[in-house]
Amino acid sequence: MKSKLVHRYEVSVLTVSLSRRHYFVSSPYLAFNSGEQFYMFTIIAAWLINMAGRPFTEPQEYDEPNATVSNILSELRAFGVKVDFPPSKLKSGSGEHVCFVLDRLAEEALKRRGFSFKRPNYPTETTEEESVVEDNAELTLSKVEEEMIEEPDEDEENVMDLEALKLRSTHTEAEASSKPDEILESTVDAAEWNLEVERVLPQLKVTIRTDNKDWRIHVDQMHQHRDGIKSSLKEAKSYLDKLQEDIGKTLEKVSSREKYINNQLEHLIQDYRGAQAKLSEAKERYQQASGGVTERTRVLAEISEELEKVKQEMEEKGSSMSDGAPVVKIKQSLTKLKQEIVQMDVRIGVVEHTLLQAKLKEKSNMTRDMHATNIPEPAAGSFA
């Protein structure tokens, strides 16, 4: 099953790499089937979890998304990763949180396999800055020619033919080398020489374009900023010193005024402290008195409740005494009781009569039985 999962992961990774590099960044890459992107995310996450050393079942394409996402986040928390976003952020299969989950799982898988990133070896760059002389004013003829070709001057009349100048310089060097070594003496008038210099001087100006990548420019800027900071500090330091002196004097005045006020109001402060002590004593006595009043109020409430009960009982008794209805009820009860007594006497007489008849009947039966048992005895004796 693990080999099958690895094969499916390799196929999915190949598909993702062939389609787009930023596959899980945004969902519009697969607008026609957004579920495919989520499925790719789940199987890659499952493969990374297995590679990190924790068993994880391969999710299917038609599994419940909420359950799958919950299982992936549970495994991610098991690695000690803090998850502070809801699981619904992963259901789209793309976005910042999906990339975060895959990144952390990939780190755990690499850590499990013992992989570690080595320090990069940067290639040595051979730049033209090494051949540049410290003096920025010295420029090679080819560089000046290239810059002038890239940035042509608007005034074409003042532009020098650098190629002709180069040829002229080489020609003069050849002539100089062909002449014998001897002392050269100038035959040109100094005034004419100065006039020629003034005429050619505007054409000898070369505009040097500043390169922001040059470290010398940055160093010059740092020096300029340092000088500006120093000059600004000199100007501001005097103001700050003056401000410090003013603040110190003001604080001294405030402290002296405070001491003077404390000395002048010392007796008032003593009186105020005494009044505060008296007030605290009065408050304490008030609290004690209020406690006694509260207790007495409670006792009064209990007595009032008992008094209300007694009044209610007296009212009930008074109303029963003044009312004649109970007497009428008593008389009716007595009459009814007498009738019941008469009926009971009649019933008692009937029962006594019935009982007497039963006794007489039983007595007669007993005498008859006795006579019946006594008659055969003499007859038996005569036959003997």
C-alpha geometry: elongated
Q: Biggest β-sheet: count, sense, barrel?
A: none
Low-confidence stretches: 13-19, 128-142, 151-160, 379-384
Q: What is the residue-averaged pLDDT?
A: 76
Helix and strand sequence:
HHHHHHHHHHH
The amount of helix comes to: over 70%
Helical/strand content category: mainly alpha
| Radius of gyration computed on alpha carbons | 64 Å
Q: Helical element count?
A: 11
Give the terminus-to-terminus CA distance: 129 Å
Total strand segments: 0
Measured by DSSP, the beta-strand proportion falls in under 5%
Q: How is the secondary structure organized here?
A:
Blueprint: H1 2-19, H2 34-51, H3 65-78, H4 96-112, H5 141-150, H6 162-178, H7 190-200, H8 215-264, H9 266-322, H10 325-374, H11 376-383
Helix pairs in contact: 1-2, 2-3, 2-4
Brief characterization of the structure:
The protein is built from eleven helices and no strands. With 384 residues, it is mainly α.
Describe this structure in words.
70% of the residues lie in helices and 0% in strands. It is mainly α and 384 residues long. Helix 2 packs parallel to helix 3 and helix 2 runs parallel beside helix 4.
